[in-house]
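Agenda item 2: IPE complex prediction
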Amino acid sequence: MSVDVRDSLTPPEQLPRHVAIIMDGNGRWAQQRSLPRTMGHREGAKAVRRIVQACSERGVTVLTLFAFSTENWRRPPWEVEVLMKLFLATLRNEIRRLDEANVRLRFIGDRSAFSGILQDYTAKAERRTAANTGLILVIAANYGGRWDMAQAGRKLAEEVAAGRLQPGSITADLFHHYTCLSDLPEPDLLIRTGGEQRISNFLLWQMAYTELYFTDRLWPDYDADDLESACAAFASRQRRFGQTADQIARSAHA
Ligand code: IPE
Ligand code: IPE
Ligand code: MG
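Presented output:
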């Protein structure tokens, strides 16, 4: 007898507030079907729609999706071009639906490398959804964890050079304020699809205490039930943040 996963959903208070996803496996999904990699990316865009909707419905606060890394420029030029076109087309197709679903869109990464039209469109999408109060959807595009830390370091150095900041007052807390997403809860759960068990320069600073979850499922196949499995695994873990298991158990009963 099969059990419908929806009969036993993770209780809302045990859900991760911030889910981050490395959406991997589009190319292999296509290769397994003797299709061009492009088709894998197209199917991957459909999975994005499914997972955004599922997170929205479940009441997740923030969903951060890794769409294009600073290293993905190393791919063949035709694939980079396809990804950029798909990025713009998906945004155009989805913006109305996202806005109606009360989703607030945000982009992180160095957008100066993108075409003017993509830069304009991402800014427009952020403005259009700025007042929405539902899911915060963060798209990491031309994003790299090292880039993020370097840009934070650069801004701090500018403050010092301008005489507004003493080097001695640079602490981890202050540095944090200059990194991306510092105004949002840190990622509770990282999901990576596609079977690889690595971070690939995603949110290096922000994931100091994130729970990591790896699945062999390829991104174009990923669905709401897979997300629920990841949430259930998350809910079963004890996060200790450096403390002992006893301390955590005692504070839970306090
Ligand atoms: C993830 O799928 C999409 C991006 C990195 C943009 P891949 O294209 O990396 O798929 P695989 O890893 O080759 O299967
Ligand atoms: C990570 O996937 C980047 C994105 C999902 C955007 P990659 O496929 O680029 O990662 P590596 O190269 O296998 O580490
Ligand atoms: Mg990959």
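Discussion summary: The chain has a mean pLDDT of 96.
Owner for follow-up: CH.
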